[in-house]
Amino acid sequence: MEDNMGQEKAAILPSMETDSVGKVFVRYLIPSLIGMLMMSINVVADGIFVGHRLGALALAGINIASPVFSVFFALSLWLGTGGATLYSQSKGAKNIKQAQQIFTHSLILIFVFTMLVAVTAYLLRVPLAYALGANQDTLPYALEYMTVLLTYGFIITIQNAFSLFVRNDGNPNLAMISMVVSAVLNIILNYFFLYVLNMSVKGSALATVIATLAGAVVLFAHFLRKDRSLAFVNPRFSWQLTVRTLTIGFPSFISEVGLSVFTIGYNVAMVRWAGTTGVAAFSVLNYAHSVMLMLFLGMGSAIQPLISYYRGAKLRLREVQTIRIAVTTAFISGIIVFLFGQALAGGIVTLFGDFPDEVRSLAITGIRLFFVGYMFMGINFVMMTFFQASERVTAAVWITLSREIILMVIFLLILPPLFGTNGVWLSIPLSECVVATAIFIYVRFLQKNATQ
Hints:
Layout: H1 2-10, H2 14-18, H3 21-54, H4 56-92, H5 96-123, H6 125-131, H7 139-168, H8 172-196, H9 201-219, H10 239-313, H11 316-351, H12 357-370, H13 374-389, H14 393-419, H15 421-451
Helix pairs in contact: 3-4, 3-8, 3-9, 3-10, 3-11, 4-5, 4-7, 4-10, 5-7, 6-7, 7-8, 7-9, 8-9, 10-11, 10-12, 10-13, 10-14, 10-15, 11-12, 11-13, 12-15, 13-14, 13-15, 14-15
C-alpha cells in the first residue's frame, strides 16, 4: 500500500518538469513574496502600534530586542532550509520515503535546538539586553518584549520551518495563506492588547506569538491533501543527515545572524554618532528594512524548492533558466524599491508615529541613502540561495558573511568618521554593491572556464 501511495504522490511531480520554467517560477514566486510580506507585517505591526501608542523609547526598546526574533528565525531557516533542500532533492529523485524521513528528522532537530537556545538566553536576558544596545531608558521595554519571545520562541521556529516544507511539497499557496492569517491576526491582537487592555510592549509580543501559532495550525491543513508527499514517520536519528542538514542550511543561518549583527552594529554606531535620536531614527529605518528584506528573501525562497528539485531530478538546464529569470526579477525589483524610497521617505517615517523633527529628519535621510542598497541586495539573495540549493555551500557562506558581517563592520568603522551619520546609513549599500560586483566577476569566471 505504501508503494502505491508513493506512486500516487510521485504523479504530481511532472508539472515541475514539463511546465515552462517561467510558469513554474511565477507559481512559486507570487505566494512566496506575499507570504514573506505578511511575515514582515508581523514584525512591522508591532513597531507601528508601539510607536503610536507607547512612543519612541518603547519603539527603540523592542528594536533592541528584535535580534531575539532574528535568532529564532535563523534557527528555523538553518535547519528548515537544509532539511527542505534535501527533501526536494529526494522528491526530484522520486524517493518519497527518504523525503519523509528527512522531514521528520528536521522538525525534531529544530525543536531541540530552539529549546536549548531559549533556555540559555532566558537565564542571561539582562546582560544580553545590555549587549544588544539597551540603556537605562530602553532596558525595561527591551526586557519585557524579549522575555515573551524567549518563552514562546519555539512556536516561531516550528511554524516557519513547517512552512518551508509545505512550500517544498508543492503547496506554496497554503504557506502564503498561513502567513496572511498570522499577519491579520497580529494586527487585530496588537490593537486589542495595546488599546483595549492598555498593555505595554508585552502585549505586542504576545500578539506576535499567538498569531504565529494560528499560522502554524493553518499549515496542518496540508495533511488533508491526497496528493501530498509530506508525512511524519518513525524518527531515526542520523548523524550523517544532521551534518548535511546543518551544512546546507548554514548560509541561511548566517544570513539571519548577519541581520542581528546589522541591527546591533547600527544601534551601536547610532548611539555613538547621534545618541538616542539616532537609535530612534534607525528603529524606523529598521522596520521599513524588514519589509524590503522579506521581499528579497521571498525571491530566494521561491527558487529554493525549484533548484533543489531540479538538482535531484538532474535537470541542469532548468536550473540555469530559473536562476536567470530570478536574477532579472531581483534587479528590476531593486530599482523599483530604490525609487519608492526616494519618493516616499517622509510617508514611511510618518507611518511609524509622530516623531520629533530631529528624529524625523534623520530617518528620512537614512531611508533615502539606505535604499540604494536594494538595487544589489536582491541579486545577492538570489545567488546565495542558488549556490546553497545546489550545494555550493562555500560560495553561499562567502556571500552572506561578506555582505552582512565582514564588509558592513569594516564600513561602519571607516565611513562614520568621514561622513558622520551618512556614513552609517551607507555602510550596507556599499557592502551590497561590492558583493554583487564580486558575484558577477565570479560567475563570469566560472562561465569562461566551462567553455574552455
